[in-house]
Amino acid sequence: MVAGSIAIRRSISTWPPLSQRIKQTENEIVQMFRLPNNPQEGNFNLPLKGGNVLRKDPNARTLDERFIRILKIFKWGPDAEKALEVLKLKLDARLVREVLKIDVEVNVKVQFFKWAGKRRNFEHDSTTYMALIRCLDENRLVGELWKTIQEMVKSSCAIGPAELSEIVKILGKAKMVNKALSVFYQVKGCKCRPTASTYNSVILMLMQEGHHEKVHELYNEMCSEGHCFPDTVTYSALISAFAKLNRDDSAIRLFDEMKENGLQPTAKIYTTLMGIYFKLGRVEEALQLVQEMRMCRCSPTVYTYTELIRGLGKSGRVEEAYITYKNMLKDGCKPDVILMNNLINILGRSDRLKDAIKLFDEMKLLNCTPNVVTYNTIIKSLFEAKAPPSEASSWFERMKEDGVVPSSFTYSILIDGFCKTNRVEKALLLLEEMDEKGFPPCPAAYCSLINSLGKAKRYEAANELFQELKENCGCSSARVYAVMIKHFGKCGRLNEAISLFNEMKRLGCTPNVYAYNALMTGMVRADMMDEAFSLFRTMEENGCTPDINSHNIILNGLARTGGAKRAMEMFTKMKNSTIKPDAVSYNTILGCLSRAGMFEEAARLMKEMSSKGFEYDVITYSSILEAVGKVDEDCNK
Fold first, then answer.
1. CB neighbours of 569 closer than 8 A, spacing ≥ 6?
2. CB–CB of 482/448 below 8 Å?
């Protein structure tokens, strides 16, 4: 029995790996990584040249590899610290930077960095701080990153313009804009004299995060420094900021200023200015910029051509937009999908559907792959050109065959198009397909269907869809409410229309001009003129500006129930206000005057209409002639 127990003990204690592990002390763990005493012992792994060992710092790499092994096995702690002493690695900035590059856990690096900072005769400098900051940024440890930056700013280490620029960029990327500005001003105040590049980093960060107003403030500050002058990057950011703020005059002034200061605008700056000129309707000045670019040997980019084509298209100069595209190809500039989508859209809207489809076919030859927007644009153009709905369906199938996944907007275009061509059942099937594909409910698609069902007097079906949208979304858009209110008003269910209007307000869905107009129309139809007029005043009080339709709805109600005098009073007010009467307003008053037998006033109004370029409504004109005929008959009796 005793012999057996001894045998068991011996079998455990003589198992080499475990016995060695039990005997190891912390010092022996470090000894595993000690350099050989005899230099020749460690040379078997070193490269040879002509029979001699290369001696260009032969132990540096070996030491690094051994130390890395310790860090990976034992992390940072007493074992790694002992190894540092045994391997005689000098603690300096170079060593810290090298350790922070090692592929080990980020927490190990942070612990090592903090340990190093507490050693005597060593102090972190800007290079070690920046090495850790980059490491923390890569690992998205935002809290530790901000603490390290604060510590760096408070320390005695120098911070140069390049380091400050990088810190600003890193904080900006982490969406810590206010903290970045705080660091900028702290460092600027006591440690660093910012350069144009430093200011540009702050300006670009503000631009990316949408703080456009602050950009101009920083520019003024930069100019007041006396030693730091804006460069091309500064002007580019400022001009872009002003363009986004719609401060067009300021952008143009800065463009002229940079040229006066001897700086050459980049293609991006020219493109931004071109967009401003097109927006202001100054088309010729936009085109002059293209000539100026060529004179200055500043080649237009694909973005420049995109802006040029889009601007010409919006100005109605469609053929010039198409010629610009052809010239771009001759100049060797390859179009991208955004440019092609813009041009296809311009051609489609200008009744040049064949050219739009031809352009689509050219895309493959240009190695420019059509995307979902391209297909959506073609499908929308087909409906707008009143092409057979089957063509839109075939493009939809082609889109899926080409591996392009339809978006919710694709379905919305198709549903709207089928509704407008009286193919409501097809539209309903597409709405069901949307749901099966997992798309969220699309208010625009529901709006088209509800409106079509209402027009077809399928009010219950329209209301069912409306309720479905509310259940799926938790609420509905103001536009969908307006459509449902309009159809309830049309079919005489005014109480339900009023309930929906009140429900909108209760749910925090602010009624828009369409909702007000829809309810006012229902009230006028129900001869509730006082209520309609009261709602018109409430609309203005609630900050919803009435449009020409709002005025015409009330004018129509007054003409029908309030007599010619009240209608003429409102008509006169319209002529003296910002909302001027249109053809509908004039025809409404003409009908009212003819019913009241006020033919002289009607004749004067008809002359006024002609002078303003408005046409008479055929029905109104016929009713006036009929009324005049009856008066003549009465006079001859």
1. none
2. no
Of 252, 304, 258, the C-alpha closest to 280 is 252
Distance of alpha carbon 363 from alpha carbon 617, whole angstroms: 48
One-letter amino acid of 98: E
Tell me the C-alpha distance between 498 and 603, whole Å.
40
**The pair of three-digit structure tokens given for residue 94, joined into one six-digit string:** 């170079």
Q: Which helix (H) or strand (E) holds 490?
A: helix 478-490
Q: Average the pLDDT over 310-339 and give the result.
A: 96
pLDDT band at 11 (very low <50, low <70, confident <90, very high): very low
Taking the model in full, what pTM does it have?
0.70
How is residue 609 written in tokens? Answer: 């209409």
CA 179/CA 172 separation, integer angstroms: 9
Give me the phi and psi of 48, to 5 degrees please.
-115, 150
pLDDT of residue 87: 66
* 225, two tokens: 């420094």
- CA-nearest of 194, 197, 103, 117 to 157 is 117
User: 143-172, pLDDT tens digit by residue?
Assistant: 999 999 999 999 999 999 999 999 999 999
The answer to whether the beta carbons of residues 453 and 484 sit under 8 Å apart is no
**What string of H, E and C letters represents the secondary structure of 341-366?**
HHHHHHHHHCCCHHHHHHHHHHHHHC
Q: Alpha-carbon distance 470 to 506, whole Å?
A: 14
Determine phi and psi for 245, rounding to 5 degrees. -90, 0
Are 529 and 496 in contact by the 8 Å Cβ rule? The answer is no
One-letter amino acid at 347 equals: L
> 579-613: per-residue pLDDT in tens?
899 989 988 888 888 888 888 888 888 888 888 88
Kindly report, residue by residue over 164-190, the tens digit of the pLDDT: 999 999 999 999 999 999 999 999 878
List, as one string, the DSSP characters of 525-550: HTT-HHHHHHHHHHHHHTT----HHH
Contact 239, 254 (CB under 8 A): yes
> Per-residue pLDDT averaged across 376-384, rounded?
96
Nearest to 205 by CA among 231, 227, 183, 229: 183
Return the SS3 of 122: coil
